[in-house]
Amino acid sequence: MSAAQGGQARALSTLAGLTRFRYLKFGLVGASGTVVNIAVLYLCHEYLFQAIEGPQGKPWASLAVAIAVATVNNFTWNRLWTWADRVQAQRAAAARMARLVISAAMAVLYSTSPRRSSAGSQIERTADAARLIVDSVSA
User: Fold this and answer.
1) Domain of 40?
2) What is the pTM of this model?
3) Would you give the distance in Å from CA 109 to the centre of its chain?
């Protein structure tokens, strides 16, 4: 094995290690998002929105706030920590976050719009909303 081949093997090994570490970061950020979501859901349902939701009511407002806070948490930590080695303009990251928030809000409004329809069309609207989010973020 020549010196060049040995260097290439070390470089590939290092890249493979970084890739595994990045997946670990994604996992930790996702886990933190789950914890944030559950904590915010509990706090909003038990304290903030108790008057409008009631103890046995469906926590729609609390759920919306919890999802929004967890989304911002995950986006921020992925930008600052998971992808810290990639240099990006702050404006580009802010634009991506704005697109994500706007598309998620539009998707929620669209999927929960009051219509006289069957459960099947609710599933279709939810799928359309998910496609809207994915398309806007990946652009």
Assistant:
1) 3-138
2) 0.60
3) 18
